[in-house]
């Protein structure tokens, strides 16, 4: 099966990219989630060594976080994903972040539209700590979800 995002009539399926293809810092495990169980979609900009990268974060009804690397951008699966959830093109959304936002303390909601650009995580001590080591482990999403969302 090809790596990336695939939408069926009921599920979002993400198939992992190999670490040889995207590197271990960006590696995210494969997952399946029912479309009806997706509560939030967020964007999380990060630095991987000195490269600006980001993750698409899928949050289910239980608060579980499923990351997807930016390697999916521009693929047919990503285009279907954006269309299904009526998202602005994710590549354009990435342009709203400044370089300083890539230090692991800024995560924004892009779905649902009522919560657009709200903070995904509480600005508390966990998020503060994550800022110190996010460059070592870019795919760490340590923090408390903002329950006001």
Number of domains: 1
Number of helices: 4
- The run of helices and strands is EEHEEEEHHEH
- End-to-end separation: 35 Å
Q: How much is the average pLDDT? A: 86
Q: Classify the oligomer.
A: single chain
Radius of gyration: 14 Å
> Percent helix among the residues?
10-25%
Overall geometry: globular
Strand order of the largest sheet: 6-5-4-7
Q: What share of the residues does DSSP label as strand, in percent?
A: 25-35%
Architecture blueprint of SSEs:
Elements: E1 4-7, E2 11-15, H1 19-22, E3 31-34, E4 38-48, E5 51-60, E6 65-69, H2 76-84, H3 90-94, E7 108-111, H4 125-133
Antiparallel strand pairs: 1-2, 2-3, 4-5, 4-7, 5-6
Give a short overview.
Helices cover 18% and strands 29% of the residues. It is an alpha+beta fold.
Features:
about 150 residues, alpha+beta, about 30% strand, globular
């Amino acid at each position: 099966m090809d790596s990336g995002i695939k939408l069926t009539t009921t599920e979002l399926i993400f198939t992992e990219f190999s670490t040889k293809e995207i590197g271990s810092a960006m590696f995210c495990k494969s997952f399946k989630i029912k479309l009806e169980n997706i509560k939030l979609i967020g964007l999380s900009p990060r630095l991987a060594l000195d490269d600006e990268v980001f993750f698409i974060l899928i949050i289910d009804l239980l608060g579980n976080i499923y990351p997807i690397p930016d390697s999916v951008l521009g693929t047919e699966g990503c285009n279907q994903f954006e269309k299904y959830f009526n998202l602005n093109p994710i590549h354009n959304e990435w342009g709203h972040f400044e370089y300083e936002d890539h230090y692991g303390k800024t995560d924004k909601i892009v779905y649902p539209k009522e919560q657009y650009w709200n903070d995904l995580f509480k600005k508390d001590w966990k998020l503060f700590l994550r800022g110190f080591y996010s460059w070592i482990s870019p795919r760490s999403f340590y923090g408390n979800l903002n329950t006001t969302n």
